[in-house]
Amino acid sequence: MSLGHIGVTEPVISCADDCGVRDVLDRLGDKWSVLVVVELAAGVHRFKELQRAVDGISQRMLTLTVRRLERDGLVTRTVHPTVPPQVEYELTELGHSLTHLVKNLADWSLANRPRIEAARREWDAKADMPS
Amino acid sequence: MSLGHIGVTEPVISCADDCGVRDVLDRLGDKWSVLVVVELAAGVHRFKELQRAVDGISQRMLTLTVRRLERDGLVTRTVHPTVPPQVEYELTELGHSLTHLVKNLADWSLANRPRIEAARREWDAKADMPS
DNA sequence: CCGCATCCGTTACGATACTG
DNA sequence: CAGTATCGTAACGGATGCGG
Fold first, then answer.
1. How confident is the model at residue A131 (pLDDT cuts 50, 70, 90)?
2. What is the pLDDT of residue B10?
3. In the beta sheet, which residues pair with residue B90?
4. Is the minimum CB–CB distance between B49 and chain A shorter than 8 Å?
5. Which keywords does UniProt give here (chains A, B) (predicted)?
6. Where are the alpha helices (DSSP H) in chain A?
7. B60 has a chain A CB within 8 A of its CB
């Protein structure tokens, strides 16, 4: 059945050493999922609201992203049969539990970004003069 | 200078809403980085050891991955001028601080995988009979 | 307004072969 | 052993246009 229409491909990798880490990362590792989750953590959003909020995401990618999140039970999608149509996205309880992890990531990143950038500059510097 | 040789491309996205989350995810979101970090969390490893440990990683990807981790100051690479050559990889302090985050991710994943898979099956089921 | 389909370029990844 | 170089493939992601 393939599920190709929302861009889902089954990973071949087995649970040898990761034992679960890859699983989350495959959901959150893509370019937009985390941003959408962060945005939804603030509350319910409509499609267009989300697109405006995430800044830079294309319509296509937003659709794919919310579909995948919905499939994994992290987001609910409720359609109001009005005209024009109105669709609302909301984090599930499972989705909310994820926001704590994301918060930790953000904190770590904020705290250590300077060190990372310093290391990066250093590395790049000595990589540029091999002579 | 481009750094293309280790597969590094500068992201265009700005810190509008993510404010740091993307930064970590860009490092850890790829297919192998986390696996390597997890493996190195257990202790020092030689190149070949790492490759055997990670299971499925190609020589090329292992090289690229450790280079990027090294560039970001998460891993040190020490070359012993012996013959045959011997190279050892080890987590830096910064790298070790990351393992806590990874641990949280793994825990969350382990705890919630059943729910995710259930949601996924449910979604797939109703997606398969549109009639 | 919502979102699916199509086309297309870019990037990531894997396989293989070759060097010190 | 520890890489580098080259090539091919497939996934990712952006732009556009159409339909409900």
1. very low
2. 57
3. B76
4. no
5. DNA-binding, Transcription, Transcription regulation
6. 21-28, 33-41, 47-54, 59-71, 93-128
7. no
Q: Is the CB of A59 under 7 A from strand C?
A: yes
pLDDT at A75: 96
Does A130 have pLDDT greater than 90? Answer: no
Q: Which residue has the tokens 């937009």?
A: A32
Which of A5, A10, A18, A45 should be substituted to probe chain B, the one whose Cβ sees the most B Cβ atoms within 10 Å? A18
CA distance A66 to chain B (A): 13
- Compute the distance between CA of residue B44 and CA of residue B66 in angstroms, rounded to an integer: 13
Count CB-CB contacts under 10 A for residue B89.
22
pLDDT, one tens digit per residue, over A67-105 is 999 999 999 999 999 989 999 999 999 999 999 998 998
Least confident of A30-39, A65-74, B13-22: B13-22
In this prediction the pTM is: 0.87
pLDDT digits (tens, 9 = 90+) for B107-127: 999 899 899 999 999 998 877
List all nucleotides in chain C with at least one atom under 7 A from a protein Cβ. 1-6, 11-17, 20
Contact between chains at B124 and A1 (C-beta distance less than 8 A): yes
The C-alpha atoms of residue B116 and residue B64 are separated, in whole angstroms, by 32
Res. B131: pLDDT tops 50: no
CA-to-CA separations, A110 to A105, B18, B22, in angstroms, rounded: 9, 11, 11
The strand ranges marked E within B32-95 are 45-46, 75-80, 86-91
Report the C-alpha gap between B48 and B86 in whole angstroms.
10
